[in-house]
């Protein structure tokens, strides 16, 4: 079985049998896309919500808005159909507490909202999520069945 590690600000796709793994999701969000008909899976590890808010935005995998589009294109190039793809989200934690009302620091929450907004614009249904909280996650996407294994420290392991 092929196991592909997806780094921070990175993305990858795989056909069954294969797994996509990303480590250390804090405020970052893991966006898992899956086509059960073709058993093609895609995973992005995004760091920031919007490429248009940042000058240095050459790495398209770093942002929710551009990473989802690229992931979709890569999956379609392997034979996936956008209308068969569903999404699962994980991460988006608030890793540090700030004594402020400034939403700019709520990067995890903003990443989750931006991911949902982009998926909604593209007509991709989110079927489950494990987001928020104040703890990190490691996730594993199984291309044979679309299961997303979420591992945490102190909050157990679950499949969403």
Automatic annotation (TrEMBL):
Top-level lineage group: Bacteria
Protein source organism: Thermohalobacter berrensis
EC annotation from Swiss-Prot or TrEMBL: 3.5.1.44
InterPro entries (alphabetical): CheD-like_sf, Chemorcpt_Glu_NH3ase_CheD, Cytotoxic_necrot_fac-like_cat
Function summary: Probably deamidates glutamine residues to glutamate on methyl-accepting chemotaxis receptors (MCPs), playing an important role in chemotaxis.
CDD domains recorded: CheD
Protein name: Probable chemoreceptor glutamine deamidase CheD
PANTHER family recorded: CHEMORECEPTOR GLUTAMINE DEAMIDASE CHED-RELATED
UniProtKB keywords: Chemotaxis, Hydrolase
Transmembrane segments: none
GO biological process assignments: chemotaxis
Family, as annotated: Belongs to the CheD family.
Gene Ontology MF: a single term: protein-glutamine glutaminase activity
Catalytic activity: L-glutaminyl-[protein] + H2O = L-glutamyl-[protein] + NH4(+)
